[in-house]
Design brief:
18 helices, alpha/beta, two-stranded antiparallel ribbon
């Protein structure tokens, strides 16, 4: 293999892709999307204010005033403020024999007021519904589930306090003793302990997993399409007159890999900048929000495992592109590679929840799963050094094996036209050493 020929092919592949508008649109769009998703939802959460005019009907005759007092205190859930303007509706007076008719008429009147826009909703509290721990909520739209949860929580507080008082308990003492306990999460590392919310670590793990998954699949597929394009247009016959098949394959892989690394560097650089203390975006986040950081060691491992994942799967895609004659034929066979890229999603949550479990260790050391699952584990908790070293060694060995197989198939298949090869024929190409 002549290094000069390899570099010429790699340079051509790199510059052809790096100069395309699509590459830069995708490269810039993702960081902008990251910044938007980080800032805009936080601003919306802090500014959201759901106002609801509620008509309250209390047929128990004892809870009305307490419910009005509780509901008119602003409640919040998942960052949304729910503000209730409550109207306590008096029950219609009249003979007991006609009470059911009067209540039905009241329901119809409340429905009319909702449809007329006078009120947003009405709530019906009765002894029968409370016996089943249920309360009726009527509105023209019932998709406001966050507001409904705040409403249900407020009503539950009042009903619970009334039940405790009727049973002879001290409501304030019980409320104080049974108050919910929160967790102040602190992440321990060799650099020292640092307060960090679990949501932040989860977001980092998911983001890195998705970025690696996307780039490995995207650029592996680009290798296959590039090989197919050159083969179908017969350009490869001209190229092979100047360079050896192995040089052409290696140059193509190196060039496209450098394109992917360029894009990955922009994305990770943006992520590091957005999570650096003191940047503008942090001042826009809610008070008390702990922004996770990306350690340098983790960033370097992302590049390392991307290289392993790229060469592991891109060589397979190059082999498929060389063996078949068109994209339709190649896509059917390339589904085998997609299965192994997608498979880590099946153990995503168990590994994320317990990165030191036997399942997490075994699956992350399986070379085809290593690039994605090892980064997922690292984002949550750095594995022991021996596991990291072993994962690199096993995956490097797998990459070497795939490169050898891909080179054998590429050398034969790149100049084969016409008939679609069978699996047996591809297997014979893999064994061919000539």
């Amino acid at each position: 293999m002549k290094p000069r020929n390899l570099l010429v092919v790699a340079k051509r592949e790199y510059l052809t892709r790096i100069r395309s508008k699509g590459f830069w649109i995708a490269t810039v769009a993702l960081p902008l999307l990251m910044a938007t998703l980080m800032v805009v939802p936080s601003l919306i959460m802090t500014k959201t204010r759901a106002e609801e005019r509620v008509a309250l009907v209390d047929t128990t005759g004892t809870l009305g005033a307490d419910l009005v007092s509780a509901l008119e205190q602003t409640g919040s859930l998942v960052g949304e403020q729910a503000v209730f303007e409550v109207e306590l509706v008096e029950l219609p007076a009249g003979p007991p024999a006609e009470s059911s008719d009067r209540l039905e008429a009241l329901r119809a009147e409340l429905d009319r007021r909702v449809l007329g826009g006078e009120i947003s909703s009405w709530v019906w509290v009765s002894p029968e519904s409370l016996a089943e721990n249920r309360v009726e909520y009527h509105a023209e739209s019932v998709s406001n589930f966050l507001t409904q949860q705040v409403l249900a929580a407020k009503i539950s507080e009042v009903v619970r306090a009334r039940r405790l008082a009727e049973a002879g308990f001290d409501v304030e003492t019980i409320s104080r003793l049974s108050r919910r306990i929160g967790l102040d999460t602190v992440r321990i590392s060799e650099e020292g302990s640092k307060a960090e919310g679990g949501g932040g670590a989860f977001a980092v793990a998911v983001a890195l997993f998705v970025v690696l998954y996307t780039t490995i699949l995207l650029y592996g597929n680009q290798v296959m399409l590039g090989v197919l394009e050159e083969k179908s247009s017969r350009v490869v016959e001209i190229l092979l007159a100047a360079v050896a098949p192995v040089e052409l394959l290696a140059g193509k892989l190196l060039g496209i890999c450098c394109v992917a690394l360029t894009q990955l560097a922009v994305w990770l650089g943006t992520a590091v900048a957005l999570t650096t203390p003191g940047v503008v975006t942090l001042s826009l986040l809610p008070a008390g929000f702990q922004m996770p950081t990306l350690p340098l060691a983790l960033v370097l491992h992302v590049f390392g495992y991307f290289l392993l994942g790229f060469f592991l799967f891109a060589t397979f895609y190059a082999m498929v592109g060389a063996a078949f004659n068109n994209q339709q034929e190649a896509q059917q066979f390339s589904a085998i590679g997609v299965i192994f890229v997608v498979a880590p999603w099946m153990v995503f949550m168990p590994v994320l929840n317990d990165p030191d479990s036997t399942l997490a260790v075994v699956t992350s050391l399986f070379p085809l799963f290593t690039p994605l699952l090892m980064i997922l584990r690292m984002a949550v908790e750095m594995p022991p050094v021996w596991q990291i070293a072993l994962s690199y060694a096993l995956t490097l060995a797998a990459c070497a094996g795939m490169v050898v197989l891909a080179a054998r198939v590429y050398r034969v298949g790149i100049l084969m036209y016409g008939k679609k090869p069978t699996v047996g024929e591809i297997w014979r190409w893999m064994k061919y050493r000539g």
